[in-house]
Amino acid sequence: MTHNQESGNDQDSVLRKPVSRRDLLRMAGVGGLGLMLGAGGMGGFLQAGRSLNANSSPARNTGDQVPFYGLQQSGIITPPQDFLCFAAFAIRSKKLADVRALFQKWTAAAAEMTQGRMIGEWNEQHNSPPSDTGEAEGLSPSKVTITFGVGPSFFDDRFGLSGKRPAELRDLPAFNGDQLSEDWCGGDIGIQVCANDMQVAFHAIRNLARIARGIAVLIWTQEGFQRTAGADPTAQTPRNLLGFKDGTGNPDVTDKKAMAKTVWVQQIEGPAWMENGSYMVTRRIRMRLEVWDRTQLSEQEATFGRYRSSGAPLGASKEFDPLGLDRVREDGEPVIPVNSHVRLAHGDGSVQILRRSYSYSSGIDRRTGQMDSGLFFVSYQRSIAKQFIPMQQRLSQSDKLNEYIVHVGSAVFACFPGVREGGYIGETLF
Ligand code: HEM
Fold first, then answer.
1. Residue to substitute in 175, 236, 242, 246 for testing ligand 1 pocket (most ligand atoms within 8 angstroms of CB)
2. Looking at the chain, which terminus has fewer C-beta neighbours within 10 angstroms, N or C?
3. CB 410 within 8 A of CB 177
């Protein structure tokens, strides 16, 4: 079977699901979400702006925290934790006041969870649902970070905010080869939760969705993983599911200048509410693992332009050696092929992005028996138009990797600047 035929099958399986999750949610409406997430409702918690510290529960375990408050949101330049739970929401309420109140409640809950505390007031009233669903009780915060962003659709006419949409924040253009399914596209709000424990990450998304009841509904979610710190105590660059080290060419997150240049929106470019925020792109990229696994190692290495074992650029010996794109073989051909992923992604080297992707495995495609696995690509950048788009245009046109991957989901979000204690996420916009 050729790759094209396979891609036809993939498209069938991805696009012709009888009833999508999103359809179900539409049919179920807001009440349905409540049913899906359990009958908990919001319990005694959730009065906007209320300080939770006075009566809040004891910390579950205070180790392993990433500070929630700060100039910038955590979860962006934070070294990637082991697991990801990503959620996109559609807002059902038409009132800005509801949305503002939701972000206030979410901020309070996120601050609690990142400190390893249970959400809401600590009580043992047996006649009402608990304000925290409980599955993280007793667990370490596990370096959980909760990063909030809003998508282009947030700025339609519903909330009177259309004048505040950043010029940067638009749905991505169609790229060559895209086979997008609405099951993993878009969203008024995107929340990235990362933690060193999957149950802690899931707990965060579940409780944020529960808090949103009546105002916003989940429209898609994606879980992700990489090797855990336990399996790799020396913290080597993690490998993706194609077996290659992934992240080597990322800019240095400890270099403030590089982060200001690449990741953080600066005052001069505006809008003012986005200063110290960042734009996030997510692409759900399915891998044709079965095809890759039948491909010779030399071909695999030519696809990326790096050696699989060491991660070094072809023709070099160490992972962090310069790419050396000018090197040529005896036959005059470049050592790093012209259609290799690193050469095309690198371009002239003047533009970078910060990649923060996770592998995913979501069962199998029942039509083909193939694995629905790949990369949940996440990148942060100061400008989507100047950084991500030209890169993806080059890759979608010529990348040899395209024989083995297909982009099936896509979303962009403007991630707010960080929040000071006493404030709330989104305050600069609302
Ligand atoms: C399933 C899809 C993808 C896989 C498996 C993949 C894998 C890799 C690998 C193995 C490397 C080399 C090691 C490294 O520097 O991290 C790399 C580099 C890179 N990739 Fe990807 N990638 C994928 C998609 C993308 C996309 C969609 C973009 C952006 C549009 C992208 C941008 C980059 C960049 C900027 C580099 C570094 C290039 C440099 O050295 O300057 N990748 N990728």
1. 246
2. N
3. no
